[in-house]
Amino acid sequence: MIEAIVIACTAAATASLCAYHLRKLRIAEFARHVTRGSQSQHEATLALARAIFSEVKRGRDPAFLLPLLASLGGSPLTILKAGGCCSGVHRLFITALDTLGIRAAQVTVYRRDDPAAAHCLAQVRTECANMLIDVDYGVCLQHPDGGPLDLAGLRSGVKPAIHPFVFDRQASYADGRPSRAAGYPDRDYYRFDYHLSRTANWADTLLKRAVYAALLPITRGRVDCLLLPAILEWPEVLLAAALCWASILLLAARALTR
């Protein structure tokens, strides 16, 4: 019985990794197309951000395979086709940048009075410097003096200057709501407490809050600043890893009971 389960898990993990490889090729094709003609990583980053801002519809992130796996988030290719929320839009952005050899990771900004209603951005490392970009709203977050800004700067208390980088396009919604121009609306939700910024939204579910409480002392607070590699933005990879661990645990349990 255990052997059959292990074989099934291994087969499913292999299929998931194959899907990851094929879907990454599609994302790479999209990224190369919209950044054609860019002369630098900085230009390519902004070209990709503008394309995603205007071409990807906003809505709920699509579940990965089954509602049971919704916590893994949507696949980047599905988000490209069907749309997503701020976390999905930046997942697509980060994985597309990765295919161009540009490093990026998610950053989450909070409001103290409602930490569960967090908002995702991306920190991008180009040949120039770190950039903080909100592709969902078409804006860059810069230092007030006009220089670059990163997660460490936000956490140190720097209040960013918000500058749009999209001027001739609008973002559309999957549910038919009116499209919107770049920039944050003048509402309380967008008045973030930037010094609370982290690399993930640890406040939206009980499980995440419990995991965060465990990781915080283990990492001595560094969990708030640990920028995740782009490969972890792929639910296909996360599912394959989980299935492999399950197989290992089953084999270990059988060995211990003999």
Walk me through the topology.
Layout: H1 2-34, H2 41-55, H3 76-82, H4 86-99, E1 103-110, E2 119-125, E3 130-134, E4 139-142, H5 151-155, E5 161-164, E6 193-198, H6 206-218, H7 235-257
Antiparallel strand pairs: 1-2, 1-6, 2-3, 3-4, 4-5
Helix pairs in contact: 1-4, 1-7, 2-4, 3-4
Structure description:
- The protein is an alpha+beta fold.
- The chain has one domain (48-234).
- The chain contains seven helices and six strands; from the N terminus they run H-H-H-H-E-E-E-E-H-E-E-H-H.
- The chain has helices spanning 2-34, 41-55, 76-82, 86-99, 151-155, 206-218, 235-257, and strands spanning 103-110, 119-125, 130-134, 139-142, 161-164, 193-198.
- A hairpin with a 4-residue loop joins strand 3 and strand 4 (139-142).
The largest sheet has its strands arranged as 5-4-3-2-1-6
Helical amount: 40-55%
Mean pLDDT, all residues: 90
Low-confidence stretches: none
Biggest beta-sheet profile: 6 strands, antiparallel
Count of helix runs: 7
Question: Can you write the helix and strand succession as a string?
Answer: HHHHEEEEHEEHH
Secondary-structure-based class equals alpha+beta
Q: What separation lies between the terminal Cα atoms?
A: 15 Å
Strand content: 5-15%
Radius of gyration: 20 Å
Q: Tell the overall outline.
A: globular
How many independent structural domains? 1
Number of strands: 6
